[in-house]
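Repro:
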Amino acid sequence: MEIKIFNRWDTTEVVVRDPSLRSYINIRPIIVPHTAGRNTKKMFDKVKMNIVERLANNLMRREQNTGKKHKALKTIEEAFEIIEKRTKKNPVQVLVDALENAGPREETTRISYGGITFLQSVDVSPSRRLDIALRNIALGAQYAARRNKKSFAECLADEIIFAARGDIQRSYAVRKKEEKERVAESAR
């Protein structure tokens, strides 16, 4: 028997094009992406967690969704169905493309030197880049769903599709990435 995500989407043909993110995006097939915290015990063990589960964990950030993992997984499954209908592609591949486009490569840090504080441009590690991309996709979907007729799953699907295309006008995650990189470029 072949194992697929949500028993529907095959991850064997999913390709991570960004070489820096290849070892951080886990797309091993799993029927239900729910590890129940097994990967939280050790530092950097979150790389072993499936990328769909990491997205679900980021969707549970807000007050009304805290701890409701089953609800988050159902929302992601609905969003994947919408993505598959609209793009005619594997939704896991679309998610991976969105994460590659939404992760900033450069950001700033504060440096104090002789009582003077200034911003310095630094490269972003692949792990942090992936964390920021996941968080911004989840936040973009939550902001889009607020006071909107669309369901949360539709807003999540829109955010993932727009981020996969690299649409700076319509994707919150790509817009945040461009903003961080612009600030970092001025702080070089």
